[in-house]
Target: 10 kDa chaperonin
Amino acid sequence: MLKPLHDYVLLEKEKVEKTTSSGIILTSGKEKSKLAVVKAIGTGVEKPEYKVGDRVLYREYAGTNMKVDDEEFIVIKDEDIIACEG
Model:
């Protein structure tokens, strides 16, 4: 597992459903979830209002995306997390 440095946070992106419960296939690309689960917090993040395991909402064009195996992650700055579920 990657460990974020400084004031960065590692998030695991939520998977977007490709089909509805009734079987309708959704078009790809336009609607991507900006919700993710916090996986790790860098030591430079001061007094985070979230913890590992929390679901958070992040800014649309923030961070660096990466794919490990079949999971999608994003590394973003603490300031780009704009809401926390809870």
Observations:
- Strands lie at 8-13, 35-41, 55-58, 64-68, 71-77, 81-84.
